[in-house]
Write a structure and sequence with these properties.
By secondary structure, this protein is α+β, with helices and mostly antiparallel strands. It folds into three domains: about 15-110, Immunoglobulin-like (Sandwich); about 155-255, Sandwich (Immunoglobulin-like); about 275-710, Glycosyltransferase (Alpha/alpha barrel). It contains 23 helices and 24 strands. The strands form six sheets. It has an eight-stranded antiparallel beta sheet, with no helix packed on it. A hairpin with a 2-residue loop joins β10 and β11 (about 170-180). α5 (about 335-350) packs antiparallel against α7 (about 360-375), α17 packs antiparallel against α18 (about 595-610) and α18 (about 595-610) packs across α22 (about 685-700). The longest helix has 20 residues, at about 440-460. The protein is globular and about 95 Å long. It binds 2-acetamido-2-deoxy-beta-D-glucopyranose. 2-acetamido-2-deoxy-beta-D-glucopyranose binds next to loops. Its EC number is 3.2.1.4. Keywords: Carbohydrate metabolism, Cellulose degradation, Glycosidase, Hydrolase, Polysaccharide degradation, Signal. GO terms for molecular function: cellulase activity; polysaccharide binding. Pfam families: CBM_2 (PF00553), Glyco_hydro_9 (PF00759).
Length: about 725
């Protein structure tokens, strides 16, 4: 059905044309393929046929993919920014192919275009669609989608000087006067009065030109990535198509591709609280949208993100989707499942907050995204994929997921190589999802429960640590042991079904000792709170109190001078936020609500601005601008992205709205630098407890139970634990 609809819009726009090879050498060749556009297109694919196998193709203005086993058939697919082509345009693509030996292949090409409703059109019309879809809760901030485009005349114009004219060749000196921020990645549009055969620039590479070769697009190469404000000179050595002709008149504009004017927007603070929680919830959900892997939906609100990792899978198992873990592009299921469970817990417990903030529909979509992926990962009863991507290869590179070329192996657990903690964490996410979607989507909800039960059975029957079974995960998300997750997953199944066998299993693994600090590998406090909620037995309340005695002032957890409960230098705000979330959950079941809520509020307000700065990108006063995050740091397409962008001290090109950064050191020190991954990385698991805690505080405002409404909202919190 879907493919029929899709194909209806496709047009075969050309007969096969011959593609000239412009250069070749041992192991490679260069070619340029051009089509005149005579139909309006919203996206396109070029089919290439070679008479010789081609191992790889480098091309910056399309995505190349081999479509035959003999590597003689290839496709080039449009990028978001060049998908739309109009009648009269000429589409030219330069490519470099690699193979064995020195060969100049015979190449033919056909162009196929979509006539509308293609990915680009859907993406640009998204705001209208989503507004209509979410009518009634459409208090979300205005979202400005600025479609990416090849830069044109709105950059810095050049003054030009010509010298050394000889035999159809000439040297053109372009002087640009650069103002504003430091240029981080740039493109030059270069126009001449006569057709240009070739041009040579030390600092840039030509990307494309128009049909008559009078208009060229160049992008910087690694010789010169940044340009400081002031004058900047480029020397272009140019060769005309007609040799011997006199030098042409040329003009040029340079555009800073490291600036994206798209901002996050901001919903009003309807509740008039000290911090605009609605804004935080809106933006945190946007952060998870920016982390999406796979085919993006039509209502994607992140204009600088596109489809990526569309081949994730193993054999016949489709593993596309899910979230990229942090600043990188590995999909680590253990923290992803934890984050999904914690966010879904927040949706269940604080639905009124998401409703009041106008974010309820977005929140359902937000948690459904990883749940859909995790369902794909549970390929059969005793098979669960737990990671896609190789941490070493991924962390050794820097770029956009849309451009990613490296192999992405998939790793699974099964009966012989078990992983009870990741299976239980996933079961917990499914059981929470079952409860969250019960009324909204009963059949989806039933499917989640069925998978939760099956995974639970797998986890208790085949016990083992996933990081022993999957060595690829061990260096990144190694698990200490499986006991707390066996309890946690069982408790979520019990909460969902009330079947006693789940409670019995949970109690076998319960640990009443004070929690060191909740995170993706530690759900002790979650177990203590859930057990009290589900049984109301005093001993579980005592365990919760024991944990927070360590965490409140005077306990064993140290505090920064400005009042952050400081567990670890790596992601300090994450631990404080997770414990704030747990305290708010404990308050919901009646454990010292006044004290726990006040303490939790102060921890969250530290992150939101109590020290004079915000630690949430795009939110509040003086927020971070250079989080350690690859895709948002890259310049706009079509400029290439690479490791250089990690080390530049300019802000990230794109605003990674809503991301909570790692946080301060033990004396409240913090450096907003992309290289500072200890304090300035972002991650799906950092935002999960944080967002749920903010939802908890927002819910208190709805119910008039917030410390600001009850009096006594001063921070830092100095009281001892009750
Ligand atoms: C599991 O690991 C945690 C954290 O290291 C530890 O506190 C707990 O005692 C361990 N449990 C078992 C049963 O080994």
């Amino acid at each position: 059905m879907f493919s029929l609809v899709l194909w209806a819009g496709l047009l075969l726009l050309s007969f096969a044309i011959a593609v000239p090879v412009t250069n070749h050498w041992a192991g490679g060749f260069q070619a340029r393929v051009c089509f005149k556009i005579d139909k309006e297109m919203s996206s396109w694919v070029i089919h290439l046929t070679f008479d010789h196998p081609v191992e790889t193709i480098d091309v910056w203005t399309a995505d190349a993919q081999s479509t035959s086993a003999d590597k003689k058939q290839w496709t080039l697919t449009s990028k978001n920014w060049n998908a739309v082509e109009h009648v009269g345009d000429e589409l030219c693509i330069d490519l470099m192919g690699h193979g064995t030996g020195d060969f100049a292949p015979v190449i033919t090409a056909t162009l196929e275009g979509a006539s509308g409703g293609g990915s680009h059109q859907v993406a640009t019309s998204a705001p209208a669609t989503t507004q209509a879809h979410h009518q009634g809760v459409a208090t979300a901030a205005p979202v400005h989608t600025t479609p990416l485009s090849v830069p044109d005349g709105n950059g810095f114009p050049a003054t030009t000087r010509v010298s050394n004219v000889r035999d159809g060749r000439s040297d053109h000196y372009l002087t640009f006067t650069i103002s504003g921020p430091t240029v981080m990645g740039w493109a030059v549009k270069f126009r001449c009065s006569k057709p240009v055969h070739n041009l040579n620039v030390r600092e840039a590479d030509p990307l494309s030109h128009n049909a008559d070769q009078t208009e060229w697009l160049l992008v910087n190469n690694d010789n010169q990535i940044t340009i400081k404000p002031g004058t900047f000179e480029l020397k272009i050595e140019l060769e005309l198509v007609t040799g011997r002709d006199s030098a042409p008149q040329c003009s040029a504009t340079l555009t800073n591709m490291g600036v994206d004017k798209h901002t996050c927007g901001q919903p009003p603070n309807k509740a008039n609280s000290k911090y605009n929680y609605d804004d935080v919830l809106y933006k945190s959900i946007l952060f998870y949208e920016a982390q999406r892997s796979g085919k993006l939906p039509a209502n994607n609100r992140i204009p600088w993100r596109g489809d990526s990792a569309l081949n994730d899978g193993d054999g016949g198992v489709d593993l596309t989707g899910g979230w990229y873990d942090a600043g990188d592009f590995v999909k680590f299921n253990f923290p992803m499942a934890w984050s999904t469970a914690v966010l879904t817990w927040g949706l269940l417990q604080f639905k009124d907050a998401y409703q009041a903030a106008g974010q309820l529909e977005w929140m359902y979509e937000s948690v459904k995204w990883p749940l859909d992926y995790l369902l794909k990962c549970h390929a059969s009863d005793n098979v669960l994929y737990v990671q896609v991507g190789d941490g070493g290869a991924d962390h050794g590179s820097w770029g956009r997921p849309e451009d990613m070329k490296m192999a992405r192996p998939a790793f699974k657990i099964d009966a012989t190589k078990p992983g009870s903690e990741v299976a239980m964490e996933t079961a917990a996410a499914f059981a929470a999802g079952y409860l969250a979607f019960k009324e909204k989507d009963p059949s989806y909800s039933a499917k989640l429960l069925q998978h939760a039960k099956s995974l639970w059975q797998f986890a208790v029957t085949h016990k083992g640590k996933y990081s022993d079974s999957v060595s690829a995960a061990a260096g990144y998300y190694n698990s200490a042991n499986v006991t707390d997750e066996l309890c946690w997953g069982s408790l979520w199944l019990y909460k969902a079904t009330k079947e006693p066998k789940y409670l019995e299993e949970a109690l076998k693994h319960y640990d009443a000792s004070p929690d060191w600090g909740m995170s993706w590998d530690d759900v002790f406090i979650g177990n203590q709170v859930l057990l009290y909620e589900l049984t109301k037995e005093a001993k579980y309340k005592a365990a919760v109190e024991g944990t927070f005695r360590e965490w409140f002032p005077g306990g064993t957890v140290p505090y920064t001078p400005k009042g952050l409960a400081y567990r670890l230098q790596w992601g300090s705000l994450r631990y404080a936020s997770n414990m704030a979330m747990a305290a708010l959950m404990a308050a919901e079941v009646g454990i010292h609500p006044d004290e726990y809520r006040h303490w939790a509020m102060c921890q969250i307000h530290y992150a939101l601005g109590d020290t004079g700065r915000s630690f949430v990108v795009g939110f509040g006063k003086n927020p971070p601008v250079s989080p350690h995050h690859r895709s948002s740091s890259c310049p706009n397409l079509p400029v290439r992205c690479n490791m250089n962008y990690l080390h530049l001290d300019t802000p990230n090109t794109h605003m990674l709205c809503g991301a909570l950064v790692g946080g301060p050191d033990s004396s409240d020190g913090y450096k907003d630098s992309r290289e500072n991954y200890v304090n300035n990385e972002v991650a799906c698991d950092y935002n999960a407890g944080f967002q749920t805690a903010v939802a908890g505080l927002r819910s208190l405002l709805v119910r008039h139970l917030h410390p600001e409404q009850k009096g006594g909202a001063t921070c830092p919190y100095h009281g001892r634990a009750p």
